[in-house]
## 1
Amino acid sequence: MALSTRSGRFAPWAAFAGAILGEALHHQVLSDMLRFRCELGGPAAGVTGAAVAWALMGIGAWISWTSVRGNDNDPHRHTRLFIARVGWMMCALFSVAVLWQTLAMWVLPPCP
């Protein structure tokens, strides 16, 4: 993708957006569910929420990856690759956070 297009400029940042959006939605939806209607917060809800969060992270990481592969003659390739790699690390880190929150929903009862 060329940097002159809007998608070319923002594509390396997709992993950042996917990681933040996936973790934020997972955390907020599950915490609201457990706070206001705790009977909804069982293991099935935890796994479903985790799957949605990981899908958002995966889509963002894939878009970032496709934006940096290929064109070796791009003068901004190293910058784009750095941004994408940091975004991939965020996806990996936030995936672990989603995993821990999902495991907590399996271990702890939904309603005290």
## 2
Amino acid sequence: MENRYEEIVREVLDEIDSALKDAKGLKAHQRRIAFSLSLGCVNLIEKYLVKKNVLKSGVKINHLWFKKKLDNVKKLISNQIVCPVENIPNLDNLLKIICEIEKERNELAYGKIVSEDFLRKQINLFFDLKKEIEK
């Protein structure tokens, strides 16, 4: 049986796949991609922290945290885990990728249409994050 994290990531991957295969191109999916990538990032990092047995029970990570500077993101995350952030392997790298995706979220979701290449770059960042987390 699929857990909540896997279910949400699967939905995000389905949306990405649908967007990549659509003859209308990625631009037709820009807003859905923005929301999906944001949701996917939060779920991937929560899944990672659960896998490391460090996420406090019942905790939810907020996508807005990733708009802050890395040190501030780490402080917010540190309040949600049971060990020092420094003890979590590869966390800085994961947070940097998420911050890069989240930095563009609102512009993609609410702003003007961007290039296919830019959307592809955001999608590739998400795939990089997923790959790093699933190592």
## 3
Amino acid sequence: MISYERSLEERGLLLVLSGPSGVGKNSIIDALRREDPRRYHSVSMTTRQPRRDEEDGVSYIFTTREQFEKLIRCGEILEYDTYCGEYYGTPRAPIDRMVRQNVDILLDLTVKGALELKRNCPDAVIIFITASTEAALRERLLKRGTESAGEIDKRLETAREELARMNLFDYWVVNDVIEDAAANVSAIMRAEKRRTLRFFVDECDL
């Protein structure tokens, strides 16, 4: 029998924001953390060498290829991908620990990474962030000033492919105004933390 006290034990929420490049996922995460500084922006693990201005455990968790592949084999990486021959991924251990400590964890992942993490951690909440129109997304990318016209066209093509997978996510939120999008995500977080199922899940299986 589950005790009254045990049934009301709260756990942290694992929340993943995903969507096209340039849609403002990190801006939403920044707004969510300003609203509640206890929320934690998860740090990815990588096998690439740290840059001069990067701090281990803050910018990334830096590790060796051998150790990363060992963690994959042991099921200790919730999602991962490779870029320029180096691994990038989300380690399980710190996520498990903070969820048990009732810390809400925020992640910014690719669509592929978000869906992989959801398979490994069904209790996670994955939200697809999108712009209201393709023209609005193009304008965002142009304002960044970091890509050529050709690169922007490629990103928009990828965005169309990602949009076709939006139905695989738990929620979707339009980000035209950062404050409004962050408020919508925050409302989702509050509702998810009140779901009765969360009081009876021991791990994020996790």
## 4
Amino acid sequence: MHFKMRWLGLFVLLISFFPAISMPVAGATVQNTPTPTPTRSAAEGTAYGPDDFPAGVNPLTGLPVKDPKNLNLPPALVSITNFPVTARPQAGLSYSPFVFEVYIGEGMTRFLALFYGDFPSEKDATGNGQNAGVTVDYTVGPVRSGRLTYEPIRKHYGGFLVMASAWSGVAANLSEYTNVFGSDSSDINSAMVKVTDLQKIAEKNQPALSGKANLDAYRFDAQPPAGGHDGRALWLAYNYLNQIFWRFDASSGAYHRYQDKADGKTFQLMTDRLTGAPLTFENVVVLFVKHTARAETLIDMDLMYQSPQKALIFRDGKMYEAFWTTRNEGYEKTTGRLRPIRFVDAQGNPFALKPGQTWVEFVPTYSPYYETVDSELYSDLAGKQQPGSGIWAVRFYAPKPQK
């Protein structure tokens, strides 16, 4: 589905939870198969970036936006929970150009979802005209507390944070943030942020953040790069009770996200609460980054001014071994401005992402990766290697807290 159309799709959202859909595995009977997401054909034949984007094109997706004026606003980076599982499905992730999944300790991860470009509008909730004049203020979330790892990401994308407060020791290391609070003290998942408020906060932050970062950092090409390996799936185990599968869907040309139910065995197709549609991303990127555990749930990452480090990039059913960097180069030295985390090949040239959305997974530098078997069993995925399978495994070993 075209990214522009995804924003327009918010006009007809149904605010409800949808039943989970079992993940297909070899030999399994698939039930409740979702309607395939159409390929974003408008992106075909396009190739531009990192610094020659046509007017009105989002430099974080390579796709046109509905309202180019919104490209003048700073990005919103919203802290969205992934645990407990009652928070799922989350609301709004399918509209985020970039989602960063970070480790927060005790086997859990949290999402920092970046919103930039068009903002959704209020409209008849059903889209059938029966409730004409009735407006619905859609929300994103559930929103949870801030983390140390958010600040370097925020700086590189020149945006502002939206979070449900933070521990004082963390908050002291964060800047440019807005707190939102829950509506029910007995429900840890009750903090949400209205999409209309995101635009208002962006407009309020525009003067302070203007010129802080240059988002023209990515190369987009509808044609995949030469080389690479078969990459039809990625299994990433942050913990036995926090396993993720990304599986390539040929009909949409993108990857669907599956996750276990914190039970180590039952994988479900993840959806967006706002639409009921699968979470589908054109690019899935694994970045190998130095993690430092200052305490069990106080994790930091070295993301500032880094020379090229290892990255795995999944697009179009292929896996590419590439690099990420935030090195202080001529542009930064000349302008004093930062750029986003950049993806490059072995020669230092920009690596071409597929036009669309990108999900970033962070793992420690020592994390092993290999091709494994197509299975839902942890013991198989963790213990068996099968070169040429196209099913890639990345093992996450939590950083040990400093003494």
